[in-house]
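Hi L.,

You mentioned the student needs an example of a multi-chain input paired with its predicted structure. This one should do, with 597 residues in total across all chains.
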Amino acid sequence: MSPAGCSHVNGYKVENWKQNLRVIYQCFVWSGTAETRRRKAKSCICHMCGAHLNRLHSCLYCVFFGCFTKKHIHEHAKSKRHNLAIDLLYGGIYCFVCQDYIYDKDMEQIAKEEQRKAWKFAVPNLLTYTTWEPTKRELELLRHNPKRRKITTNCTIGLRGLINLGNTCFMNCIVQALTHTPLLRDFFLSDRHKCEMQSNSCLVCEMSQLFQEFYSGHRSPHIPFRLLHLVWTHARHLAGYEQQDAHEFLIAALDVLHRHWDDNGKKANNPNHCNCIIDQIFTGGLQSDVTCQVCHGVSTTIDPFWDISLDLPGSSTPFWPLSPGGDGSTVNGESHMTGPTTLTDCLRRFTRPEHLGSSAKIKCGGCHSYQESTKQLTMKKLPIVACFHLKRFEHSAKLRRKITTYVSFPLELDMTPFMASSKESRMNGQYQQTVDILNNDNKYSLFAVVNHQGTLESGHYTSFIRQHKDQWFKCDDAIITKASIKDVLDSEGYLLFYHKQFLEYE
Amino acid sequence: MSKDSQMRAAINQKLIEMGERERLKELMRAKLVECGWKDQLKAHCKDVIIEKGLEHVTVEDLVTEVTPKGRALVPDSVKKELLQRIRAFLA
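Structure written out for the whole complex:
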């Protein structure tokens, strides 16, 4: 079982052996094209008993297929003294002298390449990613840097308080949420930002620094004065010592990070194909369908979003207008008629069809005239991190106040009912099939909550963040305390951060 | 070859030709990971390796020890689903 292979393969490694081995892999092990598949189907049976099961092996020295379980290949090996065979199911090389599978580096290399090639042809939709194996250089680095951080269930690495620099709790709680966003943390801790900005005012660099501070292991609170200064420089509307809105800060911060991402003009040429980490994590697509009430033609637009702002009951706009076709069906196991308002209620309201009224007629492309229409919002593409903003601060012409209605939000959220695709299947009369067990794309887990205490004029922001799957902590500026899930779920909720449960490769 | 094994061979051939066998394999792989079967067997393999000693254990040892347990631990739901898929394919 030594990874260095066995000496008996040397008898095989003569002349054109590499090409021969490749052919065997392509034809009989990992058949990519239709032609090789047909050949494999026809010829891969045991030459002694005709069976296709029983761990069929092929002799490497001649054209012979034999069962492993029934020892037919063993008999062949003995009588012909062909001591190498290949497993047609998994591609392993068996040596009859060593009486075990051997792992020869050259042969393994060929096997890997052929497998990748076959996957590309055969089934393009399936995952073709193999497990990570360290390269020589990486092994070297690991040996030279033997210090390892061990994460136990009780360790508090990554948790650090933030000093309030004068009403900066709005910034502190967003920083806590961002530093506990797993993908963002992984990105910055693996040092993926290469700064191309000339000046010292790159916010992405500062973010990177911030992660280093949080994961340094220091337990004293961090003083984020540089971050504050950068924010004042790049988002003038947030400068000053007054209390600002945490949601506004979040959007401004994401915007500056997005802008600073690639400062040497690559983005200017291609604004729609930004590949920055902010877009990869936070950007979703919101679909807006406007349906003409006369010809029923639908005009669709898709706009990017970083957060979803949800109206609450108690605001001046009515929460549940009697919309046609409204049903009392349950979503996420809740019915909206009883109990406190839930996040799902707010989402249902957000995605309900809305009659635009006779004073807001839209020009219909089908009818070529102004007609009444309905508008409906649905999610076209969900971001990896979904941020929900409960609109608690009302700034209408009549009044400025804070809506303190309790909205209950879940730990786990399924966004499937609010997707554009779900709406389409509902409209086409298809029942929402029992979701294919492999499609877990729309399930989210709560990982951070930002709360506001007080009134519109004077208030204070705190946040709850999740660490290690089920540990929650309350972050109140410099003070971090352990919190229970109940504390989190009972809190008022202003900004709710959810993370996709299952991540997939693009 | 008996009629039964003839039919088996014919079905197998069709599955391979249409690439369905690979798809079924992938589906099964995903299901077995999800229901925890892979982890259970992995743990069992580790036990066998410790028992036989890392330097002396062969693939054969593992196959002999692990196969019966592996077969027994496959949940009925997975078996049902795959059977359904194969039936649908043959129809």
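You could point out the following to them. Residues 32 and 38 of chain B are 6 Å apart (CA to CA). Chain B has five helices and no strands.

Best wishes,
N.
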